[in-house]
Design brief:
Blueprint (H helix, E strand, L loop, with lengths): L2 H10 L3 E3 L11 E3 L1 H20 L4 E3 L8 H7 L1 H4 L1 E6 L6 E3 H27 L5 H7 L1 H22 L3 H10 L16 E4 L3 E3 L8 E3 L5 H5 L2 H8 L5 E10 L14 E11 L4 H18 L7 E5 L9 E9 L2 E12 L1 H10 L5 E3 L4 E3 L2 E8 H12 E7 L5 E7 L10 E5 L5 H15 L4 E3 L5 H11 L3 E5 L1 H6 L1 E6 L5 E5 L3 H9 L2 H5 L3
Parallel strand pairs: 3-9, 19-20, 19-21
Antiparallel strand pairs: 1-2, 4-5, 4-6, 7-8, 9-10, 10-16, 11-12, 12-13, 13-16, 14-15, 17-18, 21-22, 22-23
Helix pairs in contact: 2-13, 3-12, 5-7, 5-8, 7-8
Length: about 525
């Protein structure tokens, strides 16, 4: 499905709403509806269980959003957490300079993809995409142009050369998407942190809403190491809200000003960090594959321009409807953060390693994934339209969300064949009551049974239990599978056991080991 259809479906079926919609909304802020919050919670639960429950050397914390302002000074956010801002003089619209340039290269990449698809249709099963990309002269030239532009952009960003970015925009003749004008202001730095006043007294320090959750882990390193009795290597995991005053927040929930992060900081002996970095890259890719994300939809992108704290960094990119974009980051952060906090606070953040009989500041390998982006990736991947047979043998189109059963918002729907039949309603309510103890369920008695099936397909419910007249005779019901459309008769007494088994997160967690 295209992106507009995905956004529309999310609103129509209660996954995501525009925040403050009755007051015309608040830009780049969204609310999760009944099915959206259930899906997001299931994704967070899967991440937490796979990261903490499945690892004896990873523990969790929940740090506060408000933190001492010196934390952001030590971390570099006060001085260096900036994006390059540029305004179009005619439209008065504001943009990120790097996103304008990346948008230009995305158009070149779209031309490459178009040529690749033409060749695929021409050569069929014999087509070798990798060979075609590395031997076709036009594609080679276009890829070289992309690499040159992005290479120059990254060098300007690293050097904080705002004039270089402006000159590159002018050289490429990039126009404002709104006005078509090529008249641009100078590029300037814009700090992304939201600030707020703490307390009512005059002269109180200005606080910031945290722009990332990682610093809450670093400043608690000594507390956690002592109380959890963990030994290096070990990790600290956290799920929490973060806030960034994005210049241009766009693409629905992909880039928001209020978002949720799932982060784990893994503390290791200095000198071993790059080995652990490679291990965590592989582990995190395996986690995504376990959810059913095909390899073709994911790729690693190594950072050409490293952050000030890193000696290695890569993104796991997912192919969203608007192209491959960052889904998760894996970074080797060295000992920058702990050293910076140790120096500014005057408190030791070291670890005594009994294996070498010495104190040292650990190095850190970070995995960081946005819960909202993960949500959008799962919706983008699993929302499909397909032809299915009707009861009369004719085909029809259905819209279905094919989530892994373990993360689906509703695991099972109970549907009485007739909504006013006392016996059918009573049996349905009994099944519902039994299921509710163990899983997320829904009762649906409105409309014809076929329409109810379609409604459950549209929110991703993997199983439907239909209670009909035969149920009253032999205490069996029909269990319908969302994906195969197979319908089987099972005893009422077996419904909970069967649904729980088929929607369990256990196999999903085992696949991440």
């Amino acid at each position: 499905m295209d992106f507009k259809q995905i956004v529309s479906h999310c609103k129509e079926y209660g996954f995501v709403y525009q925040s403050s919609e009755i007051y015309d909304g608040l830009a780049a802020v969204y609310d999760y509806g009944p099915y959206g919050v259930a899906l997001k919670n299931n994704l967070k639960q899967f991440w937490w269980k796979s990261m903490v429950q499945m690892h004896e050397n990873i523990v969790g914390i929940d740090s506060s959003i408000f933190m001492h302002p010196k934390i952001w000074k030590a971390s570099g956010h006060v001085d260096a957490f900036n994006d390059p801002l540029v305004d179009n003089k005619d439209s008065k619209k504001r943009y990120r300079a790097d996103q304008l340039i990346e948008g230009y290269t995305d158009k070149i990449e779209a031309k490459i993809k178009k040529d690749v698809e033409k060749a695929r249709k021409k050569f069929g099963d014999d087509f070798d995409e990798q060979q075609f990309r590395t031997t076709n002269g036009r594609i080679i030239d276009r890829q070289a142009k992309i690499d040159d532009i992005l290479g120059r952009m990254n060098s300007y960003l690293t050097a904080e050369d705002m004039a270089g970015l402006k000159n590159l925009i002018v050289e490429l003749e990039i126009a404002c998407p709104v006005s078509g004008s090529k008249e641009w202001t100078d590029v300037r730095q814009f700090n992304l942190m939201f600030s707020t006043q703490y307390g009512g007294a005059v002269g109180e320090d200005k606080l910031y809403l945290r722009p990332e959750t990682a610093q809450g882990i670093f400043v608690n390193f000594a507390n956690v190491a002592k109380t959890s009795r963990q030994k290096i290597p070990f990790g600290i995991a956290q799920i929490g809200k973060a806030f960034r005053n994005e210049i241009v927040a766009r693409q629905f929930i992909f880039r928001m000003r209020e978002f949720e992060q799932m982060e784990m900081q893994f503390f290791v002996k200095p000198g071993t960090e790059l080995d652990w970095y490679e291990q965590w890259k592989a582990k995190r890719m395996k986690w995504h594959n376990a959810l059913g994300v095909p390899t073709s939809k994911l790729r690693f992108h190594d950072h050409e321009s490293l952050a000030h704290y890193a000696n290695a960094a890569a993104d796991i990119e997912f192919e969203f409807p608007f192209g491959f974009k960052e889904l998760e980051g894996i970074h080797s952060r060295t000992d920058f953060d702990l050293n910076a906090h140790q120096e500014l606070s005057g408190k030791k953040l070291q670890y005594f390693d009994p294996t070498v009989n010495e104190n040292y500041v650990p190095y850190v390998v970070e995995t960081s994934i946005g819960a909202d982006r993960m949500f959008l990736a799962q919706v983008s991947l699993n929302l499909v339209e397909e032809e299915v047979p009707d009861a009369d043998g004719k085909g029809s189109t259905r819209t279905v969300m094919k989530f892994h059963p373990a993360i689906a918002p509703i695991k099972c729907a109970v549907l009485p064949l007739l909504k006013n039949h006392e016996g059918l309603v009573k049996a349905s309510e009994d099944i519902l009551s039994d299921l509710r103890v163990s899983t997320d369920v829904q009762y649906d008695a409105k409309d014809a049974i076929g329409r109810r099936y379609r409604r459950q397909d549209a929110i991703g419910t993997p199983f439907c239990v239909t209670v009909d007249h035969q149920t009253l005779e032999d205490q069996t019901v029909t269990l319908r599978d969302r994906d195969s459309l197979e319908q089987i008769r099972i005893p009422m007494s077996e419904v909970r056991k069967e649904v729980v088994k088929k929607t369990s997160m256990d196999d999903l967690l085992l696949a991440t080991k």
